[in-house]
Amino acid sequence: MRKLQARELTQTVKELCIESNYNLREDVFFALKNSLNTESSKVGCTVIRQIIKNAEIAREKKLPICQDCGIVNVLVEIGQGVLLVGGDIEEAINEGVKIGYEEGFLRKSVVDDPCFDRKNTGDNTPAIITLKMVPGDSVRVTVMPKGGGSENVGVVKMLLPGTGPEGIKSTVLEAVKNAKANPCPPIVVGVGIGGTFDSVGFLAKKALIRNINARNINEKFKALELGLLEEINNLGIGPGGLGGRVTALAVNIETYPCHMACLPVAVNFGCCALRSAERVI
Asked: Residue 69 domain-assigned?
């Protein structure tokens, strides 16, 4: 049994909070650069170049990519051969968020009461934490800060099974049309299909963590990803919502088995500053 000190987990989360907010993911950065080859709008190309320049400055100057440093989503895959010592796992994670947002000069956006008082917690905690046990003796930590603009336009729908692929397409396209410029396109569209009402949203968010160049391993869902991307980019929303060809850089779909009477579908948007970072400890 491998022993992992809670303080090491805290340090890792702290560093990933800063890294993810300063450095645009490489897959997104290069997709933005490549999108200049397909964007037909001069205004759209100008918007994309400004996004790229902003990401380069943030990386060089060690500044947040976006002023909305998000609520922190933390996915921890814990090996069954690991024993955490010296503290509670959720407390260790939240301590890492707290220190990371303080030392990284990152804006704190979390309020304690979601409805009435809405007072800022002052340290961007608590994080949204998902823990998963996996084989092995290592721990994989993934941190994804999620801004309010892209989060607000997310959708969860419980479709009837008979609606099938066409119902899924309609749900995704309707979500993109209604979102318009709010999620800061060019976007990455995360789609969750299956599971239950409470789990399908996580599938959509998990889809955003996946490299946007990696297609679904199931050929039918791969075709659905590519078909949806084509239809989304035919909507004409374009970079910054100012018109053009490149509304989305990718559509990523994650699935899970579901009840035979259900077809849960969730859509979660990643903005042009789609941020996540991970490390194995």
From this structure: yes
Angle at the Cα of 252 from the Cα atoms of 111 and 40, rounded to 5 degrees = 100
SS3 125: coil
Integer Cα distance of 280 and 177 in angstroms: 38
Rounded to a whole number of angstroms, the distance between the first and last alpha carbons of the chain is: 15
Contacts of 108 (CB under 8 A, 6+ apart): 69, 101, 120, 121, 122, 123, 124
Residues 174 and 194 in one domain: yes
* 78 beta partners: 133, 139
| Residues 157 and 141 occupy one common structural domain | no
Last residue of a domain, one of 111, 146, 181: 146
Per the structure, the complete domain to which residue 218 belongs is given by 149-274
CA torsion 94-92-128-107 (nearest 10°) is 30
Q: Which pTM was predicted?
A: 0.95
Strands 82-85 and 2-5, bridge-based pairing: parallel
pLDDT in tens, 120-135: 999 999 999 999 999 9
Q: How confident is the model at residue 211 (pLDDT cuts 50, 70, 90)?
A: very high
**Nearest-angstrom CA–CA distance, 154 and 266:** 7
Bridge-based pairing of strands 82-85 and 155-159 is unpaired
- Choosing from 146, 179, 210, the residue where a domain stops is 146
pLDDT for 84: 96
Are residue 133 and residue 170 in the same domain, yes or no? no
